[in-house]
């Protein structure tokens, strides 16, 4: 059995379907195609595969329903379109799955739901429960309530994080191209297809352009970044064209289609994976050489004494980036003190915190359990 065939036998899949594909390039929901993907998912489910769907298309379908020809730039219009289009999308999935007596469940997530530990754990247990009930979760970003500040931005990222959340074995990204090409095929139609690579390989990321089509937001770069995120839970990513007949079954059979991106590092433990899923950084801490060494080699907490400078506006519990004296990123972590407090205690020993602030929240600036090395 070759690598692809082994991957095809994965038992927990996250399947992400992009806007361009789902709405047939903006001509409204492509119900014929959706019907076929649903039929394939049913076959996979009957073979014992657990499926979580991440579906884009709310904004694109909303635009069609509202008869808008141009994707609006104003957030409030995008949110209105998403609210209208999400209805059509979930109705379509539910009715096709109902045909096979299966239920779907709508899950709308925001960045905050994944950044807050309690909500992250709630989302995970809901998804696990739905899977155990043989229900197909249909996930999208909760576009109607997200602001520029807190949005994930594209569903490739969301799919990568969902793969981490439920420890999927395989993330399938269906799009309007055959996979990753060595150059953007819109610019160079002769570019060769990359068949296999490693998630997080910077050489592959250099091949992908960051702009999506007129409907999607991601482009190929976010798909590669999603593969890199997914790899943190040991998940393999398979990017393929959703227009290939029986595409999902071909993947399950390990056929030579699309681009396969293999995880290289050992999977991170659950809490570290959650930490790594934070996308919004609120500040930067510059460490001295001693602190860099301790973080890298001793797995210890970060103390205020090892920090020379702090930038940004953050509150207790926010994610900040730790940099070496030359500005190289070393780690990220949840800080125990806000900006003003940090400015007062940096460079000082932990036993002085009480004297300086009048209280001590924690002796560490960032506890090692809340720290992830980069
Ligand atoms: N190296 C590349 N290989 C393949 N596609 C690329 C590459 N660079 C950029 N792209 C573009 O990414 C697009 C897919 O992204 P996007 O429009 O966001 O799709 P989706 O809606 O499926 O997320 C393709 O149509 C393609 O033009
Ligand atoms: N949440 C948005 C997703 C937009 C988006 O990222 O689309 P895509 O790049 O096609 O995955 C929607 O449903 O329209």
UniProtKB/TrEMBL annotation:
Catalytic activity: L-glutamate + ATP = L-glutamyl 5-phosphate + ADP
Binding-site residues, ATP: 16, 175-176
Domain PUA: 283-366
Keyword hit for Metal-binding: no
Cellular component aspect of the GO annotation: cytosol
SUPFAM superfamilies, per database record: Carbamate kinase-like, PUA domain-like
Pathway: Amino-acid biosynthesis; L-proline biosynthesis; L-glutamate 5-semialdehyde from L-glutamate: step 1/2
GO terms (BP aspect): L-proline biosynthetic process
Matching PROSITE patterns: GLUTAMATE_5_KINASE, PUA
Record localization: Cytoplasm
Binding site for substrate: 56, 143, 155
GO-annotated molecular function: ATP binding; glutamate 5-kinase activity; RNA binding
Keywords linked to the UniProt accession: Amino-acid biosynthesis, ATP-binding, Cytoplasm, Kinase, Nucleotide-binding, Proline biosynthesis, Transferase
EC number: 2.7.2.11
Alphabetical list of CDD domains matching this protein: AAK_G5K_ProB (cd04242), PUA_G5K (cd21157)
Family per similarity comment: Belongs to the glutamate 5-kinase family.
PANTHER family in the cross-refs: GLUTAMATE 5-KINASE, ISOPENTENYL PHOSPHATE KINASE
Function text: Catalyzes the transfer of a phosphate group to glutamate to form L-glutamate 5-phosphate.
Name of this chain's protein: Glutamate 5-kinase
Lineage: Bacteria, Pseudomonadati, Pseudomonadota, Gammaproteobacteria, Thiotrichales
């Amino acid at each position: 059995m070759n690598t692809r065939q082994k991957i095809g036998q994965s038992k927990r899949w996250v399947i992400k379907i992009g806007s361009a594909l789902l709405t047939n390039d903006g001509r409204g929901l492509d119900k014929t195609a959706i019907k076929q993907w649903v039929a394939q998912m049913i076959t996979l489910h009957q073979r014992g595969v657990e499926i979580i769907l991440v579906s884009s298309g709310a904004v694109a379908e909303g635009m069609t329903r509202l008869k808008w020809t141009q994707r609006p730039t104003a957030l409030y219009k995008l949110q209105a379109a998403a609210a209208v289009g999400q209805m059509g999308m979930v109705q379509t999935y539910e009715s096709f799955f109902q045909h096979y007596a299966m239920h779907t469940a709508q899950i709308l997530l925001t960045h905050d739901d994944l950044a807050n530990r309690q909500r992250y754990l709630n989302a995970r247990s809901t998804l696990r429960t739905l899977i155990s009930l043989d229900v197909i979760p249909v996930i999208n970003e909760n576009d109607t309530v997200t602001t520029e500040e807190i949005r994930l931005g594209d569903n490739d990222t969301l799919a990568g994080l969902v793969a981490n959340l439920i420890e999927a074995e395989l993330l399938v990204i269906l799009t309007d191209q055959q996979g990753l090409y060595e150059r953007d095929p819109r610019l160079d139609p002769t570019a060769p297809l990359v068949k296999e690579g490693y998630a997080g390989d910077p050489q592959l990321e250099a091949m992908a352009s960051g702009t999506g089509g007129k409907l999607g937001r991601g482009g190929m770069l976010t798909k590669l970044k999603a593969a890199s995120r997914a790899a943190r839970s040991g998940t393999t990513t398979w990017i393929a064209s959703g227009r290939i007949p029986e595409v999902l079954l071909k993947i399950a059979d390990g056929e030579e289609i699309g681009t396969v991106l293999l995880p290289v590092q050992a999977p991170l433990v659950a809490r570290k994976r959650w930490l790594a899923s934070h996308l919004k950084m609120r500040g930067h801490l510059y460490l001295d050489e001693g602190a860099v060494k301790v973080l890298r080699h001793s797995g210890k907490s970060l103390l205020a004494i090892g920090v020379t400078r702090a930038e940004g506006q953050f509150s207790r519990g926010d994610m900040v980036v730790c940099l070496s004296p030359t500005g190289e990123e070393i780690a990220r972590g949840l800080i125990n003190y806000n900006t003003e407090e940090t400015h007062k205690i940096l460079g000082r020993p932990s036993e002085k915190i009480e004297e300086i602030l009048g209280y001590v929240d924690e002796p560490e600036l960032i506890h090692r359990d809340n720290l992830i090395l980069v």
